[in-house]
Specification:
Elements (H helix, E strand, L loop, with lengths): L1 E5 L4 H12 L3 E6 L3 H6 L4 E4 L10 H4 L4 E4 L12 H19 L3 E5 L9 H16 L3 E7 L1 E3 L6 H9 L5 E3 L8 E3 H11 L9 E4 L7 H11 L7 E3 L2 H15 L9 H9 L6 H7 L6 H7 L4 H10 L1 H22 L1 H9 L5 H23 L1 H25 L14 H14 L4
Parallel strand pairs: 1-2, 1-4, 2-3, 4-5, 5-6, 6-10, 7-9, 8-11
Helix pairs in contact: 1-7, 4-5, 6-8, 6-13, 8-12, 14-16, 14-18, 15-16, 16-17, 17-18
Protein name: SDR family oxidoreductase
GO molecular function: protein-containing complex binding
Keywords: Membrane, Transmembrane, Transmembrane helix
Length: 428
């Protein structure tokens, strides 16, 4: 069979694609950002298409397809995401395309607990599932709980970072029930759903029968990372609310934080599910947290990732602030800054022009670093501008290398921090 996986480059979709290929299926993948996926999975026929785009043409994508697995989803509305566009309108266009192309089998990967899920996320998920149920397709809805995977993204990445927090493990609603499922079990459920005699016209929760709380998950993840035990500390709700507000704000700059208000609301509601139907589909229970962790031992790279995850926003924020302040100081005190150059023989006019130009460049780099779309260019610009500063100073004011306050030496760590930011920039 030829299976089309929407969102095949994501955390769940990637596991589904790998399982389909391993079972010998021909696989096509579709999503907004598939360039890197094309390098990672060259055996897949990739299509760049946006579910939320009203003008998206699904007919070329669906050509020759036997079944569709939809793993696409969004967490919260923002400049780059539309819940209704992806979960409802985009799904309706995809369903209509399947009907027109004669593609009958449709597996929808939704989310456990959406029946009671608060806010727009749950509402649009429910509406999308209902839209599929009204169609003439041979459909099945799979509703995974909190997905565990060898790779980490979004909420799963945040949980690893919290588990690796120094001295204590901070958690919001640590006693709330959060049922888990491994990405490999989600992929196994998709494979089972494509076989003859598989269930149809129903929704199945993919969750472990093993009850877990958020505190359980964080404690066991910390041990999995090879870190000494630490107490789980409940984060006050007002602190979480402030953090969620900040995360919602930076989302408008293109940064998709897993700490946005929708994620906080989901944690408050928990992630419940009934794993009984999954047993019938898989022929066995969904593996629980203990079994999944035992089957996927962590190495030093997982510990590095967990420790560095929360450093990423700190690094980008600090660099943005550093370059903004540096530029503003130059604009506020141009004469004093120009004196460094006039001492090297520059005319007053030339020195002031260099100071003003450099200050504006610093401010521009600081503002660009704050926006996700231009952050990479800004970080490389910081390295380049630092190199230019050092080269110019070495040429015209080499004595500054011996300055007791280290005015030149201190620029080297800033350039190295920009390189660290570049290394941490990608989310998946």
């Amino acid at each position: 069979m030829t299976i089309l996986v929407i969102g095949g480059h994501g955390l769940v979709g990637g596991a589904v694609v790998a399982a389909l290929l391993a079972e010998g299926h021909a696989v096509a993948g579709a999503g907004r950002g598939v360039a890197r996926a094309a390098y990672r999975q060259p055996a897949v026929r990739w299509h760049r298409i946006d579910m939320a785009d009203p003008g998206a043409d699904w007919m070329p994508v669906l050509a020759g397809v036997t079944a569709v697995v939809n793993c696409a989803g969004a967490l919260q509305d923002g400049p780059a995401d539309s819940l209704a566009g992806v979960h409802v309108a985009g799904l309706a266009r995809l369903v209509a395309g399947c009907e027109a192309a004669g593609v009958r089998r449709f597996i929808q990967v939704s989310a456990a607990g959406v029946g009671e899920s608060p806010g727009a996320f749950g509402a649009t998920k429910r509406e999308g599932d209902a839209c599929l149920a009204r169609s003439g397709l041979d459909w099945l809805v799979l509703r995974p709980g909190l997905v565990l995977a060898p790779v980490a993204y979004g909420g799963s990445a945040l949980l690893r970072a919290l588990a690796a927090f120094p001295l204590v493990v901070p958690a919001l609603h640590p006693g709330q029930v959060v049922q888990v499922v491994g990405a490999d079990d989600v992929a196994a459920a998709v494979l089972a759903s494509l076989r003859p005699g598989a269930p149809r016209g129903v929704a199945i929760d993919l969750v472990s029968l093993e009850p877990t709380t958020l505190a359980d998950i964080l404690t066991r993840l910390r041990g999995w990372l090879g870190l000494a035990p630490a107490p789980v500390v409940a984060v006050p709700r007002f602190v979480a609310a402030v953090g969620a507000g900040l995360a919602d704000g930076v989302a408008w700059l293109g940064w998709r934080s897993p700490m946005r208000s929708t994620a906080i609301a989901q944690l408050a509601a928990g992630v419940p599910g009934d794993g009984a139907a999954a047993v019938a589909l898989l022929g066995r229970p969904v593996r629980g947290l203990s079994a999944w962790l035992a089957a996927h031992p962590a190495g030093v790279q997982e510990a590095w990732f967990a420790r560095l995850y929360l450093m990423k926003p700190a690094v980008i924020g600090m660099l943005s602030l550093f370059w903004l302040v540096s530029g503003l100081v130059g604009l506020a005190r141009p004469a004093e800054a120009a004196s460094v150059l006039t001492a090297a023989g520059f005319t007053q006019g030339m020195a002031l022009a260099a100071v003003l130009g450099g200050s504006l460049a610093d401010i521009a780099l600081g503002l660009m670093a704050a926006h996700r779309r231009t952050a990479r260019l800004a970080l490389w610009g910081m390295v380049a501008v630092t190199a230019a500063y050092l080269a110019g100073a070495t040429l015209w004011r080499p004595d500054l290398w011996l300055d007791p306050l280290g005015v030149l030496v201190k620029t080297l760590p800033a350039a190295m921090l920009a390189l660290v930011g570049l290394a941490l920039l990608e989310d998946r």
